[in-house]
Specification:
By secondary structure, this protein is of the alpha+beta class. The chain has 4 helices and 6 strands, in the order αααβββββαβ.
């Protein structure tokens, strides 16, 4: 018997703590600062936001690295690439906005905080998720998966950290 995708998942304790920390950091309204990762007052970039929230959630073995290295599972960000159809809350989502920076932006999937009314698209995650990320135009925030945030998705990765 083969294990399903759920068998390779972030420990539920860590997933709950990560969601709590992602939302807590958003409420603090930190600005975007390239390379920021350790202090809310100093600002955060996308990978710094994921690192800080994960560290505060107690997820072991992670180091601060870039979004692209996270997408490869480096720096302790072990995981499994998954298809959008089986995406779950707290899966990492990666975007390629510029061809010379594959998987250059990272966020985390959250179940919608409110009902979305997005137009139909062939990506089946459209009406199920929003994402938490750090944007140079809006700081750390929740973003609907629409427009470029839907069409530029390059990878979804499920972390595989447990006890």
């Amino acid at each position: 018997m083969f294990a399903g995708a759920d068998a390779f998942a972030l420990n539920p304790k860590y997933a709950a703590a990560l969601k709590r920390e992602l939302l807590f950091i958003i409420k603090q309204n930190p600005k975007y600062v390239w390379g920021g990762s350790s202090e809310l007052s100093g600002g955060l970039d996308c990978s710094g936001y994921m690192f800080l929230a994960s560290r505060r959630a107690g997820i072991p073995g992670l180091i601060r690295t870039t979004a692209n290295r996270m997408s490869c599972g480096l720096g302790g960000w072990a995981g499994k690439d998954i298809e959008p159809e089986i995406a779950q809350e707290m899966d990492l989502i990666f975007w390629t906005f510029r061809p010379n920076r594959p998987n250059g932006h990272v966020g985390a999937l959250l179940l919608p905080l409110r009902k979305t009314t997005l137009k139909s698209n062939d990506r089946c995650i459209q009406n199920r998720f929003v994402c938490a990320h750090a944007s140079f135009t809006g700081g750390v925030r929740v973003q609907e998966l629409s427009g470029a945030f839907l069409t530029s998705i390059s990878k979804i990765r499920r972390l595989t950290k447990g006890d």
